[in-house]
Amino acid sequence: MKHNFGAGPGILPHEVLKQAAQAVVDFNGIGLSILEISHRSPEFEAVLDEAVKLVKEELGVPAGYSVLFLQGGASTQFAMVPYNLLPTGGKAAYVESGVWANKALKEAKFFGDVEVIATAKESNFTHIPKDFTVPADAAYLHLTSNNTIYGTQLHEFPASPVPVVCDMSSDIFSRKINVADFGLIYAGAQKNMGPAGTTLVIVKDEILGKVDRKIPAMFNYQVQVEGGSMYNTPPVFAIYVSMLTLRWLKAKGGVEAIQKENEQKAKVLYEEIDRNPLFKGVCVPEDRSHMNVCFLVENPEHEKPFLKFCEERDIVGIKGHRSAGGFRASIYNALPISSVYVLIDAMREFAEKNK
Ligand code: PLP
Predict the structure, then answer these.
(1) Domain range annotation of the chain
(2) pLDDT in tens, 268-305
(3) What is the DSSP string of 269-312?
(4) Of 167, 204, 248, 287, which is the active-site residue?
(5) Which residue numbers belong to the known binding site for L-glutamate?
(6) ipTM computed for the complex
(7) pTM, whole model, 2 decimals?
(8) Predicted confidence (pLDDT) at residue 342 exceeds the cutoff of 90
(9) Class of CATH domain 14-251
(10) Same topology between domain 14-251 and domain 254-353
């Protein structure tokens, strides 16, 4: 087995993959593949119901919120959020904490005014901008909880006088959150929840239906809520594997237990980055992500040899994003701490050999 530090799609628990593989051949012994069953069958309805129930349980979703499994990735949410929540002539506030936030705000500009109330562009997104005031006349405040590319994370969410919309694609289910603090949360599944192909949306029902533009059905949250994520054929397999992953998470002790593990994984890895003279961290320590650990080599000549050194040890997926360079070790929920120690050992050995 490889040690998969890939950023996205990220690692899935091995037992989940085995169950999913079996379901592709024969789902629950019914003589049909999960890929063949009707989305209106009682078997699939049970899967979707369980997936929704597990999301609610694991995140403590309060009453008054709907849980949706949609398609189109988080990138579709960049447009769907303003389509549904930003009134014509109105304004939305965005914190530009990274590349994904930047993409989100660009989409919002199709629908209304966008006020970028803070940006970390000048530091090449190596810190989280915290010094801002949220305008009380904005329709919503948009945040990105974890910056997958540069490796920063919002460790505390700001107070806001307006509904908070948050892209949690790369840290959902990795730590406790208070859903009641948010108007809408969205996340592409393919980091901590399941395979690419479905997108989780948790929306506070009362914030919907307040814009007067016409919204095509597939982009309309209210239509999706009324259809119970089944306005059209849902991504059956992606939802099934997400449900299995949520079951796995629950069996491990849930978000609270995984948060402790994630904190420990991040701690030991950052300690090595700070201790090892060959490496250095990319982001300011207080905003470092517990999901995507970005680091550089002090001497650029060591970059390719270190990657090769890692590959020889079955460590894969640590090359940094094309726009950030360096290395990025994604330590999502399913990555065991033993893999982190394999990476740490590789860093130590490599440093020893290149003294
Ligand atoms: N937002 C964040 C924070 C991401 O990390 C990503 C992808 O990595 C996206 C949005 C885009 O997600 P998708 O590919 O599902 O559209």
Answers:
(1) 14-251, 254-353
(2) 999 999 999 999 999 999 999 999 999 999 999 999 99
(3) HHHHHHH-TTEEESS-GGGB-SSEEEEEESSGGGHHHHHHHHHH
(4) 167
(5) 40
(6) 0.99
(7) 0.98
(8) yes
(9) alpha beta
(10) no
Confidence of residue 185 (pLDDT cuts 50, 70, 90): very high
The Cβ of residue 18 has, within 10 Å, a number of other Cβ atoms equal to: 11
Question: Left, alpha or beta for 146 (phi > 0: left; psi -120 to 50: alpha)?
Answer: beta
Answer yes or no: are the C-beta atoms of 107 and 79 closer than 8 Å: yes
The CATH class, in words, for 254-353 is alpha beta
* Ligand 1 probe mutation, 77, 100, 105, most atoms within 8 A of CB: 100
Binding site listing for pyridoxal 5'-phosphate: 74-75, 100, 148, 167, 190, 232-233
Res 134: pLDDT: 98
What pLDDT is attached to residue 132? 97
Residue 324: the pLDDT is: 81
Decide: 209 and 110 in contact? Cβ < 8 Å.
no
The b-or-e profile of 252-278 (16+ CB within 10 A means b, else e) is eebbeebbebbeebbebbbebbeebeb
Amino acid, single-letter form, for residue 160: S
User: Looking up tokens 């680091």, which residue turns up?
Assistant: 295
Contacts of 213 (CB under 8 A, 6+ apart): 83, 87, 88, 111
